[in-house]
Specification:
The chain is built from 10 helices and no strands. The chain is an all-alpha fold. The chain has helices at 3-18, 22-41, 46-57, 59-72, 88-113, 117-127, 138-172, 174-180, 183-204, 224-243. It folds into 2 domains: 1-115 and 214-244, no CATH class; 139-210.
């Protein structure tokens, strides 16, 4: 499938999931499950493992969303004997929001895993061409996305390096570290060191040229895929509205 078609399909899918209705989320879950099943049949289990890793990194965000919705959404209390606490509506809305994020993250993983970085950036540049009608440079935006993705990889490596160094220091001096440097202070110190390193590396980095590969026009027949996806999701929404 052409990279531009993949991006358009993802935008359609993400827009539908953001609506957050239960039937649309169920349809989205079925579509994502079929995609991962297809990848497993092709002998590519790394897609599923990468998705699970991405979701594991977001576990604290999911927990935060659930807590906020639980305690700050008006409704029927889960604990009737208390004056203020988690509500049934908050639990439902929180789980729905988490489900939306899980499905979008799973779809992003499929999109990125099945598309090379150069192909993805050139497809993004192709999709942003209408911005030139407004006097904006879509090539410059695509280049900035490329630089951001490269910086994320460098920052992740630096973070892992800083974390290993911090663990080594704690193992070498367990009593002194635990007494003089609380865990939150250690995290703040590591974040400050990473920020300073990123700024220093950016100031010392030499200029480099970035060339985006030419993106071919998507085959006309493949545009039927996002059109069919739109029709399917609209049908699910309309049918469930009629039933309701």
């Amino acid at each position: 499938m052409h990279a531009v078609i993949k991006i358009v399909c993802f935008l359609v899918f993400g827009t539908a999931m953001v609506m957050g209705t239960k039937p649309l989320l169920l349809a989205g879950f079925i579509l994502v499950a079929l995609l991962y099943l297809f990848e497993l049949v092709r002998g590519m289990p790394t897609q599923l493992r990468n998705a699970l890793k991405m979701l594991k990194r977001l576990r604290w965000l999911f927990l935060s969303i659930l807590v906020v919705y639980l305690f700050f959404t008006p409704g029927i209390l889960l604990l009737p004997d208390v004056l203020w606490g988690p509500t049934q509506e908050g639990l439902t809305q929180g789980l729905l929001r988490i489900a939306v994020l899980v499905l979008i993250v799973a779809a992003v993983n499929i999109l990125i895993g099945s598309t090379g970085q150069a192909e993805f950036l050139s497809a993004v540049s192709w999709c942003l061409q209408p911005l030139s009608w407004l006097g904006l440079s879509h090539e410059r935006l695509a280049v900035r996305i490329s630089l951001t993705l490269a910086a994320v990889g460098v920052l992740r490596t630096a973070c892992q390096h800083e974390t290993r160094d911090e663990i080594s220091d704690v193992v070498a001096k367990p009593a002194e570290s635990s007494a003089s440097e609380p865990k939150l202070m250690a995290i703040a110190k590591t974040a400050h060191q990473l920020f300073a390193k990123v700024i220093d590396d950016a100031e010392q980095a030499s200029l480099q040229s970035i060339t985006l590969p030419e993106q071919s026009r998507p085959p006309l027949v493949q545009w039927a895929i996002p059109v069919l996806l739109v029709i399917l999701l609209l049908a699910v929404k309309i049918i469930t509205m009629d039933v309701g």
